[in-house]
Amino acid sequence: MAGKFSFQLDATDGAARAGVIETPRGQIRTPAFMPVGTAATVKAMMPESVAQTGADILLGNTYHLMLRPGAERIDRLGGLHRFMNWDRPILTDSGGFQVMSLAGLRKLTEQGVTFKSHIDGSSHELTPERSMEIQRLLGSDIVMCFDECPALPADRDRIAASMRLSMRWAQRSRDAFGDRPGHALFGIQQGGLERELREESAEALTRIGFDGYAVGGLAVGEGQEAMFGCLDHAPAMLPVDRPRYLMGVGKPDDIVGAVERGIDMMDCVLPSRSGRTGQVFTRHGVLNIKNARHQDDPRPLDEACACPACRNYSRAYLHHVFRSQEIISSMLLTWHNLHYYQDIMAGMRDAIAAGSFAQWRAAFDAGRAQGDIEPL
Ligand SMILES: [Zn+2]
C-alpha cells in the first residue's frame, strides 16, 4: 500500500502531547484510545459503530488470531482489515503478553516461547521472527515487538533478566520486520518500576530505532500510584518525535493521568468488557445498570452524552434488557462506554491544543467527585 507512516506533534501542555499519526489507512489523532478487537471483532459492536464512537484505530490480538482462525487463513482471505470489515488502521500486539497470561504449559527459552493453546491444547511456538510473520500476514499497520514481562511484584534480578531478553528480542524483531513502507514497528520499554532498568531499556531500543515506543510491563498488578510513579519519568526517556504507547490501560482516570504524563496511545478491554457486565462509565464516575434504583428511571445514562444508548433509551429500559440478558444490552452499554472513552480523548486533544489541559482536568475531576445523579 502506498504512503508513509509518520508522527507529527502539534501541541504540548506540560508533559501532555497532542498530534497526528499518518498512515496509508488514515489518520490517528493522539492522544488516542484503541478499542480492543480480540478475535477480529470488538465484542457486541459492528465495525461501523466502532468508527462512529470516534475511534481511529483498533487493536487486534496476535495470540488469539494465530490460534483461531489462524494467520495464514486470514492472509488467504485478504488480511485482517478485509476479514473483519475495518478499513482504518489496526495495531496488533505481539502475542507475548497473552501467551504468558492465557496459555498452558509455557516454556521460555532464548529462542522464544512454546506453549499449549487454551482452546484445544495444541502446541505452538512464538518467536520474534514468527510474531513478525504473523503480524505481517494479518496486515497490521502498527506491529509490536515480541517481548516478555513478569507480573509485578517481581524481584529486581528477574525484571532485569526479562528486560534484557526482551531487548535481544527487540533487535530480532527489527531484523525480521525488515523494510515495509507504510507499516510501523514499535519497540517496547521494559524494566518494571526500576528507573535504571527503564533507562537501560530505552537506550537499547533507541539504538535499534523504532517508529514508535511502548511503555510496557505496567498495569500488571502494581496499582495506579506505582504506575503513575513510573510514568513520571519513563515516557521522557523515549524519543520525543515518536508516538508513545501505554499498553493495556485503563480506567478513565488512568487514561487521563497517563496523557498528563506524556502518553499518546492506549488500549484496554475495560469499556467493552464492562459494557457486557453492566458497568457504565460516565462523567460522574461508574454506575451499575443492574441496580434496582434504575428500574423506574426514565432518564438517560448521561444527558450530555450523544451516543445512541443515551439519546434513545432510558435507564429503566437498559436495566430491563440487562436483567433479561438481552443481546441489545451488551450492544448499547458497550457503545456508550466506547463513546464516553472517545469523548475523553477528544476533550483532552482539544484542551492540549488550547493550552487548557489543567482546566479540563479540573472539570473532569469535579464531574467525578459529584457522583451519579440522585435516584428519583
Ligand atoms: Zn452515552
What does this structure look like?
With 376 residues, this protein is an alpha/beta fold. The protein has 2 domains: 6-92 and 132-266, TIM Barrel; 275-361, no CATH class. The chain contains 15 helices and 16 strands. Helix 13 (315-323) packs across helix 14 and helix 14 packs antiparallel against helix 15 (357-370). The longest helix has 28 residues, at 327-354. The chain binds zinc ion (ZN). Residues 301-302, 305, 307, 309-310, 336, 339 line the site of zinc ion (ZN). Zinc ion is lined by residues 301-302, 305, 307, 309-310, 336, 339.
**Spans where pLDDT lies below 50 across 5 or more residues:** none
Computed over alpha carbons, the radius of gyration is 20 Å
The distinct bound ligands, ions and cofactors come out as:
zinc ion
Q: Termini separation (Å)?
A: 56 Å
- The helix/strand class is alpha/beta
Number of strands: 16
Order of strands across the widest beta sheet? 4-14-13-12-11-10-6-5
CATH superfamily of the largest domain: Queuine tRNA-ribosyltransferase-like
The best one-word shape is globular
CATH hierarchy: architecture of the largest domain: Alpha-Beta Barrel
The CATH class of the largest domain turns out to be: Alpha Beta
Proportion in β-strands:
15-25%
The average pLDDT score comes to 96
Tell me the number of structural domains. 2
Question: How many strands, which pairing sense, and closed or not: the largest β-sheet?
Answer: 8 strands, parallel
**Percent of residues in helical segments?**
40-55%
What is the CATH topology of the largest domain?
Answer: TIM Barrel
The number of helical elements comes to 15
